[in-house]
Write a structure and sequence with these properties.
The complex is a heterotrimer of chains A (524), B (390) and C (397). With 524 residues, chain A is α+β, with helices and mostly antiparallel strands. Helices cover 44% and strands 12% of the residues of chain A. Chain A has 3 domains: 119 residues, no CATH class; 115 residues, no CATH class; 162 residues, no CATH class. Chain A has a 5-stranded antiparallel β-sheet with strand order 1-2-4-5-3, sandwiched between helices. A 5-stranded antiparallel β-sheet of chain A has the order 6-7-9-10-8, sandwiched between helices. Chain C contains 13 helices and 13 strands. Chain C folds into 2 domains: 198 residues, no CATH class; 160 residues, Nutrient germinant receptor protein C, domain 3 (GMP Synthetase, Chain A, domain 3, 2-Layer Sandwich), CATH 3.30.300. In chain C, the strands form 2 sheets. In chain C, strands 1, 2, 3, 4, 5, 6, 7, 8 and 9 form a 9-stranded mixed β-sheet that branches. A 4-stranded mixed β-sheet of chain C has the order 10-11-12-13. The chains are: A alpha+beta (524), B mainly alpha (390), C alpha/beta (397).
Chain lengths: 524, 390, 397
């Protein structure tokens, strides 16, 4: 379909409507409500309200647009009421709707229609009114599925962009929270919003994100993932370099660290960037729970990452290359269980890992009740039966199980890890420990070479930044995290106003984070 | 050639030096065979011996800021003799890279995978190095602090676990050998692991503050001297007289670890760390060689593979960094591969070379050539004017 | 942009080379797994015995290989145990250790794997001829470790590995555990291959190795073998071994039964340490000074005497001192008669007086028996154990 573009409205109202009908040919959801209004019978104004059914809110259309125009004319001053042909008058005096815009081209009419607004066209004007009447069915704010929280807020983003930005705005009540807007996708016309906090964020970063967003040349953006793939720095890396979350509080936290958020209409996920490797191990819950617990959870996640990455490779390296490294008693048990197994260990491990990946995929895509059945069949029946039948050894099943469970502890990296695991497995089964070590070296260099919007991906570790380590494996108490991470190059480094940070209990003044405002009032 | 001002911090450089030299702790076998129970002291005297060498490098780099060793010798000796001198340096870098690759290979083959041909080990290791070089040397340098922490952790864990088997008596008697033995030990340590930091003169133009070279180099050396002395002390204390007959004392000493019958065989940790360090070292040497080679071959327009600055610079256009010297990287890696295959026929030859010829071979390039360069620069009054202009 | 494009074009060729290289590498991965050995293809050796072979100039190597399936049976993962032995002993006679190992491999479908070797038993006949042959292989070979326990057997060494074991499943593991346990008894010199090597390499080499013997299918510790120049030249009995341990500061704990005027009292060593120092006398000769500090407790009292009384404690202490001193003197006289510096006097002199040692080392064999040893024993009896007075009829009154 080739859309016709007009630079200006032709004066002829009928023609305009005809042109619109032609554009929306075969679109049964287009509603053109023609009506006339006015107090003076001679000067009755012919008008048309154009909207797409389902995208608009019927209440607004009925009560705030049509009703005032047709019935509430008497509320106008006499002199005005006599001549209602002035669009500005209608806009200023009659329409009880928040967002009204005057538009001039048919092109704008089409766009406004498609984005769910109602258009009021009146006979004899080369203008139209774009009336914000967005509505239609949308999902209510609900608890996010992918990230649950125990003590944190329970709300999650929805598919509606405005709801999402509002949720963030509700967290950060500061006029310096800026929301820039862009429309991407030649056909989808997806609204994309760019959020940042002026004064914290690096302006270059905002410009860069905007530049990359503008450069996207595609006809369809259906979800955040589409945008992500168009703007990320390293398309060939298995690691995620753009962070995304379903939770407004998490995104607000990232914004306050000097990051930029990108919200895309139609997805309950908001991306933030730049992303650091360590963010894979952070959750919003970390900042809510006490720092000791959060720290131990972080360390646990790091261990889980290591296990899920290396366990199969190390098992292969140890059992087929470096048997001397296994404690003697353990060696006997392992050897005993590998007696009579028909396959070499790497093949055995490969089979089990493959089965695990299939099970996982099947479990994720299946409806929930069936998913559970699959996991029971997979885990119990297949694992147990395979060991009983002597096709795979029990240790291999154990290792694969540990690997699987560990990878669930780091949901962000699960995809990356499940790919790299195979790479390491191949290296380990050909070159043993040397292979693994070279693999680790390559992995380290790769991670160190990654950039996310100019930030070093491995940031507080390489390049090493001692003062930023307080939010890595260790999650320092909030009052001690007085600076934002330097990797995002924030304009305003300090989070606290008191300087240096103090332990809330250390002095009687108790200059903690929460009451620094109060203190400021008392201090002359 | 304008080397773009890089952003490697002095701290990164310092720890890179540490990692670089730490890789050679394994080779302490050469020196322990000579000075036996006093070897730990050689690490310190070796450091003292290395100070003037480093000072010469620093003086050269200060005279010609923003230039690497090869460019400096071009400036000093003019285009023709300069090329010859550069060729000498290049040969040295190549030899060092090959020797270290060979050390890595023979270590792996001897202790981890005896039936594997060394060529295979070298191939996979050098592939790793080539990958790292193509990703850009600065990324490797950023990793140096992390790597140092890992190394320190591994050494500390191993040393604590081996504490039970130590016997302080093994250190005695103190300093009872000929003076010549100690001089030999000092020179060997000063030249073979420590002097090798000449390779860093190829990287220093990428420093944040180009002129602050001496301090990180010296502190890096000092740190390595301490850790080297520490490692040697541990080896001597655990192995006693055995230390001078085993081929890899650091490795042997850790093989004794037994703790509650589960924490045995800790040498695997050490082996992993050691391989990492060796890869790091070979990378740096290889980079020095490749940079020099590209300079000699006149590929001057190639930018250094650093493109990020303190404020984020963004390039979305290309998925990854411009590859530093794509064809050269592979060719040089292949060169190192073949060279390291043929460099020694046997481990015996290697040990003999390390104990007798290596110091003199190294000192020629590490001390003699730079010293002569500095002298010529003084005589021709080069460099000063440049400094003013900078 | 344009420049970037040009670099890309330049990079196009090498990228294909890289891809090619990776393909080659992967292909070579598939073909060559040189050092790879499947667990099920290994014969895990846990103990080794060396004997004199039946032909002249040969030795007989016995390797104790664990049957993993039997070992793991208790773990319940596999089929139930067939009730057979969990180990197999394989022997082969050849000219050297390595050729014997190869000989065994020729007869088996699995490769002998020595990394988990725990004990090395050498028959005393072979030890008397010289140990060098076997030990160098075990030290040099990358597979075996130097923390294996070294033992000398009084009879045939391979018999030791056929011991009838009760608590363990494999004799070698039992032997290894037994030796580890002996460290606490201070009755036996526990020697690993590493200790033996260090002693051999030291200034005055006279390493010692414990001796075991078979009695009614059970292994018993017997004493200590003394080596010189790689050959076994004599033995120390139990008391002499204790003395040796006192001098070399290897006493950890243990028990001592003394005969008092009232009857037998068992004393326990709690903490003990000793220090051996060379002292130069005025005339230039070197004497050795040994200080033994010992702290003990009463372990059992089979008499009716109240040992918590201080004068009785003093008596006990004297007896303890006497016992320790006599052990040491016993060991010293035996060492002197063998002219073997089992205590490492020479090494200590070398460390403290290197110049003097240079003069002494050439005729150390004759000098050693003349070295004087001053023994000082300090004994503390710190507690009487759980009881203050012995359990005797009416003792509480």
């Amino acid at each position: 379909m080739k859309r016709r573009y007009y630079s200006f409205f032709p004066q002829n109202y009928k023609k305009n409507l005809a042109a619109l009908r032609a554009t929306f040919e075969d679109s049964s959801d287009l509603v053109i409500r023609e009506f006339s209004f006015g107090t003076n019978k001679d000067k009755e104004v012919k008008a048309a309200l154009i909207f797409l059914d389902g995208l608009t809110n019927p209440t607004i259309i009925n009560d705030s647009i049509i009703k005032p125009l047709m019935h509430d004319n008497h509320l106008l001053y006499e002199e005005e009421a006599s001549d209602l042909s002035d669009l500005d008058l209608i806009r200023n005096r009659l329409l009880s709707v928040g967002v009204v815009k005057t538009i001039y081209t048919p092109n704008e009419v089409i766009e406004a229609c498609l984005s769910g607004n109602a258009i009021l066209m009146t006979d004899g004007f080369c203008q139209a009114l774009d009336i914000g009447a967005k509505g239609g069915e949308k999902r209510a704010v609900s608890e996010p599925v992918s990230e649950t929280s125990v003590r944190g807020p329970r709300e999650g983003f929805t598919e509606n962009l405005r709801t999402n930005t509002a949720m963030i705005r509700r967290k950060i009540k500061d006029p310096s929270l800026k929301i820039r807007s862009a429309v991407i996708g030649a056909r989808t016309h997806t609204q994309v919003n760019l959020l940042y906090i002026d004064g914290i964020v690096d302006p270059d970063l905002v410009d860069e994100v905007e530049r990359r967003l503008k450069k996207i040349d595609t006809d369809a953006i259906l979800a955040t993932g589409y945008v992500e793939q168009y703007i990320e720095d390293n398309p060939y890396t298995p690691f995620p370099v753009i962070w995304c979350s379903e939770k407004p509080d998490a995104v607000a936290g990232k914004l306050l660290e000097g990051r930029v958020a990108v919200a895309v209409d139609g997805t309950p996920f908001v991306m933030t960037m730049p992303m650091l490797f360590i963010e894979n191990f952070q959750t919003a819950e970390d900042y809510i729970s006490r720092s000791h617990y959060a720290t131990s959870m972080r360390i646990l996640r790091l261990i889980a990452f290591t296990i899920s990455l290396f366990a199969p490779a190390l098992y292969i390296a140890f059992t087929t290359f470096h048997q001397e490294l296994i404690p003697t008693t353990l060696l006997f048990t392992t050897a005993a269980s590998s007696e009579g197994i028909p396959f070499p260990a790497p093949v055995e491990m490969g089979i089990m890992m493959l089965i695990f990946e299939i099970l996982r995929e099947a479990g994720v895509r299946m409806p929930r009740p069936i998913g559970q059945t699959i996991s029971i069949v997979g885990a119990l029946v297949m694992g147990e039966a395979a060991v009983q039948a002597g096709i795979v050894g029990a240790p291999v099943v154990i290792v694969v199980a540990i690997t699987a469970v560990s990878s669930f502890a780091i949901p962000f990296l699960m995809d990356a890890v499940s790919i790299i695991r195979w790479f390491l497995l191949i290296l380990a089964s050909t070159m043993g420990n040397l292979g693994i070590t070279v693999g680790v070296f390559i992995l380290l260099v790769h991670l160190s070479s990654l950039r996310s919007f100019g930030a070093h991906y491995l940031a507080p570790l390489a390049p090493f930044q001692r003062r930023d380590l307080k939010d890595t494996a260790v999650r320092a108490p909030l009052w001690a995290m007085h600076t934002r991470p330097r990797a995002t190059n924030p304009q305003d480094l300090k989070r606290l106003r008191s300087n240096p940070p103090r332990n809330p209990s250390s002095s009687e003044k108790a200059t903690g984070v929460r009451n620094h405002d109060k203190e400021q009032q008392y201090d002359p | 050639m304008k080397s773009t001002g890089g952003n490697i911090s002095p701290k990164d450089l310092m720890f890179a030096v540490f990692c670089f030299i730490q890789a050679t702790v394994l080779r302490s076998g050469y020196i322990i065979a000579v000075t036996r129970q006093d070897s730990w002291a050689m690490a310190m005297t070796g450091f003292l011996f290395a100070i003037p060498i480093v000072a010469i490098y620093a003086a050269l780099l200060r005279k010609f800021p923003g230039k690497n060793l090869i460019e400096i010798s071009d400036c000093i000796f003019g285009p023709i003799i300069g090329k010859v001198v550069s060729a000498f340096y290049l040969f040295f870098f190549l030899s060092l890279a090959a020797l270290n690759a060979h050390d890595l290979g023979s270590f792996v083959v001897r202790y981890l995978m005896p039936e594997t041909p060394i060529a295979m080990v070298l191939l996979i290791s050098l592939m790793g190095c080539a990958y790292a070089l193509r990703k850009g040397i600065e990324n490797l340098m950023y990793l140096s602090i992390c790597l140092s922490i890992i190394v320190a952790g591994a050494v500390a864990i191993n040393s604590i676990l081996v504490l039970n088997d130590m016997n302080p008596g093994f250190l005695k008697p103190f300093f009872q050998m000929d003076l010549m033995t100690y001089i030999q030990g000092t020179v060997t340590i000063g030249a073979v692991p420590m002097g090798e930091i000449i390779a860093f003169t190829m990287i220093t133009p990428m420093l944040e503050k180009e002129k602050k070279v001496l301090k990180p180099l010296l502190f890096g050396l000092l740190l390595s001297a301490f850790s080297m002395a520490f490692a040697m002390l541990r080896d001597i204390l655990t192995l006693g007289p055995l230390v001078s007959i085993v081929s890899l004392p650091s490795f042997e000493s850790i093989r004794y670890v037994t703790l509650a019958d589960t924490l045995t065989r800790m040498e695997s940790i050490y082996a992993v760390v050691l391989i990492l360090l060796f890869l790091f070292k070979v990378c740096i040497l290889l980079y020095a060689f490749i940079l020099g080679l590209s300079h000699i071959l006149g590929r001057k327009n190639q930018p250094l593979p650093n493109q990020d600055h303190t404020n984020p610079s963004f390039n979305t256009d290309q998925p990854s960094n411009p590859k530093s010297f794509p064809p050269l990287t592979l060719i040089s890696t292949a060169l190192v591969f073949f060279y390291s295959l043929i460099v020694f026929e046997s481990a015996m030859e290697n040990i003999d070379w390390g104990a007798s010829t290596a110091p003199f071979f190294s000192l020629t390039y590490e001390l003699l050539l730079p010293a002569v360069s500095l002298l010529v620069a003084f005589l021709r009054k080069l460099g000063k004017a440049r400094e003013v202009r900078e | 942009m344009t420049r970037n494009n040009s670099t890309i074009r330049k990079g196009a060729l090498p990228r294909s080379i890289t891809v090619f290289g990776i393909c080659v590498l992967l292909a070579s991965f598939l073909t060559g797994c040189w050092s790879q050995r499947e667990l099920s293809k290994l014969a895990i050796v846990v103990g080794t015995a060396l004997d004199i072979g039946d032909q002249p100039d040969t030795l007989k190597l016995t390797a104790q290989v664990v049957k993993a399936a039997e070992m793991g049976a208790s773990a319940g993962s596999q089929k139930s145990s067939s009730g057979g032995k969990a180990y197999v002993n394989m022997s082969y006679t050849d000219r050297s250790v390595l050729s014997a190992v190869r000989g065994i491999s020729h007869m088996q479908n699995r490769r002998l794997y020595f990394s988990h070797n725990k004990v090395l038993v050498i028959s005393s006949e072979l030890a008397k001829l010289g140990m060098g042959k076997g030990l160098d292989t075990f030290t040099r070979d990358y597979e075996s470790r130097m923390n294996i326990q070294l033992l000398i057997s009084k009879g045939k060494a391979f018999k030791i590995l056929e011991e009838d074991v009760d608590l363990e499943k494999v004799p070698s593991l039992h032997l290894f555990g037994m030796m580890e346990n002996q460290k606490l008894n201070s009755e036996t010199a526990v020697v690993t291959l590493r200790d033996y090597n260090i002693a051999t390499l030291s200034g005055s080499p006279a390493p010692v190795v414990p001796i075991v013997e078979m009695k009614k299918d059970k292994v018993k510790l017997y004493g200590t073998a003394v080596f010189k120049k790689g050959k076994m030249i004599g033995e120390l009995d139990k008391s002499q071994t204790r003395g040796l341990l006192w001098v070399t500061d290897r006493t950890r704990g243990g028990a001592l039964t003394v005969d008092t005027e009232w009857g037998q009292v068992a004393l326990e060593y709690l903490h003990s340490n000793s220090s051996l120092k060379p002292v130069r006398t005025k005339d230039g000769a070197i004497r050795m000074e040994l200080t033994v500090n010992e702290e003990g407790a009463i372990q059992s009292n089979e008499t009716t005497e109240d040992l918590s009384r201080l004068e009785n404690v003093e008596k006990l202490k004297e007896l303890m001192k006497e016992a320790i001193r006599s052990d040491i003197e016993n060991a010293l006289s035996q060492a002197r008669s063998l002219s073997a510096d089992v205590f490492g006097f020479g090494e200590i002199i070398r460390r403290e007086y290197p110049k003097e040692w240079e003069k002494m080392k050439n005729n150390w064999d004759t000098l050693f028996p003349q070295i004087e040893l001053d023994i000082r024993v300090n004994v503390k009896l710190s507690s009487t154990g759980g009881l203050v007075r012995p359990v005797i009829p009416g003792g509480a009154q």
